[in-house]
Structure formats: C-alpha cells, structure tokens
Specification:
binds magnesium ion; 356 residues; 11 helices; Rossmann fold; 6-stranded mixed beta sheet; binds guanosine-5'-triphosphate; 22% strand; binds zinc ion; 5-stranded mixed β-barrel
C-alpha cells in the first residue's frame, strides 16, 4: 500500500510518497485536475480543494513552475485559504512555447504516461502538424500515439494510416471511430495499471467524444465544428483530468491552434529518428543537410527514400528551436542586467545613506 486508496486511484506511487516525505510534515498531497485563472483544483484523499498557488510558485511561473493539470502538489495554508505550496517533481511535462508571450514556456500537462495525438480522418492527415506534435511529445518524456479519428467518415482509412506511419517512426498509429467502436479497446489498453493519458489535437478532431466513449457516459460536451469559418470555436475550454470508471485517468484538452516548439531539440531527433540515422552517413558530423557535400540525408531524398516534405519539416522545426533558444538567451541576459542594476542601486544607496 503506497498511500490512501483515493490517491492510489489517481496514480499515487511509492516514488511520490518518497517525494512527499522530503518535505515538511503536515502538508496534504493531491493531484491537480484543473488549473484556471490563478486557482488550482486539487483532488485529495479527503475530497476536492480549491487552492491558490503559493508566492514561491507564482515567482517561478515564467519557467513553467505553476501547477498544471496532472501535477501532484502539496497543500498547506489553512482551511479558509488553502495554498499549493509545492509542485512535486514531474515525471513528464508537455511543454510548448507560450503562444501569448515571447521566450516563455507553457506546460500543458504533467505526469502523463501516454499522449494521444488525434487527427480526423475526414481530412487528409496534416503530416507536418503531426510531426510537430510528435517532437513535442517525445521531448516531454511521455509515449506518443497517433489516433486517426472518425474512420467511419474516411474514404480510405488504410491509405491515410500508411502515410502517417511514415511520418511517425516507432509510433503506434491507431484508427478509431466512436460510431462503429473501432479502435476504442486499443486506446483502453493505454489506461491499464491506472495510467494517465492526455488527448491533444486540433479542435473538432473528436477528443471529447473519445473521452466519453472511454467513460461510457457523456461527461464532456462535444459539438459539430463549423467548417464555414476556419477558426471555429473550441468546445472544450479548459484542460481537465478525468477519472474513468474503468480505472485510469484521461486529460481532455481544448484544441491547440499553435504548436510552437520550445527547447525541444531532443524531441525532434526522436521524432525524426530516420533522419538521425541517415545522418550518421553524412561526411560532416554537424551536417545540417542543406547543401553540404557528402550529405547522406539529401542523397536519400534524391533516391526517393526520404520524402522531401519530411526533410523540410525537420529543418523548419530545428530552425524554430534555434530561434527559441536564442530568445531564451536574450531573456536571461536581460534579466541578469536588471538584477545587476538593482544590485548597483542598492550598493549606491548603502554608501550614500549608510543603510541597505
Ligand atoms: N462520424 C464521426 N463523428 C465523430 C467521431 N468522433 C467525434 N465526432 C464528431 O466530431 C465533432 C467534434 O467532436 P469533439 O469531441 O467535440 O471534438 P474535440 O476534439 O473535443 O473539439 P474541441 O473540444 O473543440 O477541441 C462532434 O460533432 C462529434 O460528434 C467519429 O468517430 N465519427
Ligand atoms: Mg473537446
Ligand atoms: Zn547531411
């Protein structure tokens, strides 16, 4: 027994118990099922608590330190004003570049075992987008699975699946339909052992419909997407962790519009493991596969072994990560400068007034 029963159902493990023991006594462990406008909604052994993040956590917000859905937190404060004091070390964290602010990270979900990347088969699969999402997921430490939804509407589901398999080496590509029930049991397998899965993918790809199919009841709102205006609306508006009656947990998320790369160079290498392998044959170790002599990757493109589209997608993502890394450096420099300035002012004042 690793902890109180309700916590075990939420995924509490002996590793987590050990992490809890490293902190001061009297704090209450719980798992975040929603995080919204400065409030953290936490399930604990004795029920749901709405807490505010402690100042220390707010200060680490720019580095992704605020509690997000899926996080394990330790609650303190008093009953009238509960505080999330600590975020326990994450086993996995899905991070993208914050679409609203430059050089900032946004953690979408934490401590998930498997990420289901959903794409509707009603459309031609958007391979570049899938590759982008795969890089993000590989970088998170979680296992990616591609789920091609709405198979009942597909003209040729198998052909679509074949094309996605080539863009997703080493990744399982499932085909599902909530109308016929195809593929639902395969997804259920990822919940075994009380695991946590998260669904990410464009709005209208059927994420919430899948959650309902897994739950066996309509927990989440679902809605027909309007094709007329490409921007549409999100039916699901917040990321939420849901306990399934059959065991296991699923995080439903609103459709992602932008999937900006964060510092995910390793994720890209994993998502493009075929290119990484070919690159072993390049003459130069630091070959960027764009015009260098003796480039095995470009040779593979010429020979028709590697789709040109895929190489271009790889280059684009790498360029994006280089750009973000540059931005992070600039931000760090500016922050250091600002701290130096504050320090200089403090010292000046000390000599002038004889006090800090
Ligand atoms: N024919 C068919 N329709 C489906 C299937 N799965 C989902 N749909 C429909 O697709 C529409 C969008 O589904 P949702 O589950 O709301 O999509 P979502 O990904 O949660 O969208 P957001 O919450 O906006 O991100 C709904 O009208 C669903 O009924 C499927 O397997 N087959
Ligand atoms: Mg939804
Ligand atoms: Zn090369």
């Amino acid at each position: 027994m690793t902890g109180p029963e309700p916590l075990v159902a939420l995924g509490y493990t002996s590793q987590l118990a050990a992490l809890v023991a490293e902190h001061e006594e009297g704090l209450i462990p719980g798992r975040v099922f929603r995080s919204d406008r400065g409030f953290v909604f936490v399930i604990t052994a004795s029920g749901t608590v709405v807490a505010k993040p402690a100042t220390r956590l707010i200060k680490s917000a720019d580095d992704g330190g605020l509690p997000v859905v899926g996080d394990w937190v330790l609650l303190g404060g008093d009953e009238s004003e509960p505080l999330a004091e600590y975020v326990l070390s994450r086993t996995t964290a899905i991070a993208r570049r914050d679409p609203g602010r430059a050089a900032r990270v946004q953690v979408l979900a934490a401590n998930v075992d498997t990420v289901l990347i959903t794409h509707p088969l009603a459309d031609v699969p958007n391979l570049s987008r899938i590759e982008r999402e795969l890089a993000l997921v590989w970088d998170s430490g979680a296992r990616p699975v591609v789920v091609l939804t709405k198979a009942d509407l597909a003209e040729d589901a198998e052909a679509a699946r074949e094309s996605v398999i080539l863009a997703a080496p080493g990744v399982e590509v499932l085909v599902t339909s909530t109308v016929t029930g195809e593929g639902i049991e395969e997804i259920r397998a990822y919940l075994e052992g009380g695991d946590t899965i998260v669904l990410i993918g464009p709005s209208g790809s059927g994420k919430s419909t899948l959650v309902n199919a897994l739950a066996g009841e309509d927990l989440q709102d679902t809605r027909e997407v309007r094709v007329s205006d490409g921007r549409g609306r999100h039916t699901t508006v917040s990321r939420e962790l849901i306990q399934l009656p059959c065991g296991g947990l699923v995080i439903d998320t609103p459709g992602l519009r932008a999937v900006g790369m964060w510092d995910s160079a390793e994720g890209i290498d994993q998502a493009f493991s075929d290119i990484a392998e070919l690159a072993q044959g390049c003459r130069f170790r630091d070959c960027r596969h764009s015009g260098e002599p003796g480039c095995a990757v470009e040779e593979a493109v010429e020979a028709g072994v590697l789709p040109r589209r895929r190489l271009e997608s790889y280059r684009e993502l790498q360029a994006e990560v280089r750009h973000v890394t540059g931005e992070i450096d600039v931000r760090a420099r500016l922050e250091r400068k600002r701290e130096d300035k504050i320090m200089a002012r403090t010292i000046k004042r000390f000599y002038k007034e004889g006090k800090p």
